[in-house]
Structure to design on (223 residues):
């Protein structure tokens, strides 16, 4: 039973446009969510996070939105750049567990 | 630069031959993790240490063991690797914040 789902394995976006990556979760105990970016032959790197007490967190070109009632979060990248081409993972955690459940990732390709 | 280092980056072992993967960190984080990631799948948590407290996931096979001799180092021992254990193994650390810092991973091939 996969508790964190990224239903789109891949996404292609034109440079300068918005990229929207989606993530759904099933466990209502999750209260902290993170997005990671992974380039080939490298480990995932932390991108942005959001706590369940918020519904939006913004960091430069990256914004994460959380809809708790729908158990859904999304990552918006505006404007998209070719260097953003990577695999994006969402991950979820419950307070105090220090455990993270990852989704399967979405491969983003930004076309120049 | 503070970082998470994994050695080796690529490891080839024979079926049934014990293998050890290593991870070290200069971040002085108290939590260390081992994940297994197979192609197109989510990273799967095998176990984590909170300081010296070992936390095993219920579905982690007994074939997988871990040691953390000090804050900086953590090892993953696979006692009898099978073909199904071929994967990328990721080490990560975190402190009291939620962010995890990952190493580059070790790709294990079992022949």
């Amino acid at each position: 039973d996969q508790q964190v789902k990224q239903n789109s394995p891949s996404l292609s976006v034109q440079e300068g446009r918005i990229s929207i990556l989606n993530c759904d979760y099933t466990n209502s105990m999750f209260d902290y969510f993170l997005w990671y970016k992974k380039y080939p032959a490298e480990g995932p790197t932390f991108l942005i996070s959001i706590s369940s007490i918020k519904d939006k967190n913004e960091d430069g070109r990256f914004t994460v939105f959380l809809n708790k009632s729908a158990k859904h979060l999304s990552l918006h990248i505006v404007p998209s750049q070719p260097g953003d081409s990577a695999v994006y993972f969402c991950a979820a955690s419950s307070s105090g567990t220090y455990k993270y459940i990852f989704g399967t990732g979405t491969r983003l390709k930004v076309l120049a | 630069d503070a970082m998470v280092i994994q050695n080796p980056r690529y490891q080839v072992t024979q079926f049934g031959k014990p293998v050890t993967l290593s991870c070290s960190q200069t971040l002085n984080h108290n939590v260390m993790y081992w994940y297994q990631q197979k192609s197109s799948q989510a990273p799967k948590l095998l176990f984590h240490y909170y300081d010296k407290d070992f936390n095993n996931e219920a579905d982690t096979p007994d074939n997988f063991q871990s040691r953390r001799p000090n804050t900086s180092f953590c090892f993953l021992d696979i006692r009898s690797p099978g073909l199904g254990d071929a994967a990328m193994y990721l080490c990560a650390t975190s402190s009291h914040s939620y962010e995890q810092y990952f190493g580059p991973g070790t790709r294990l091939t079992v022949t």
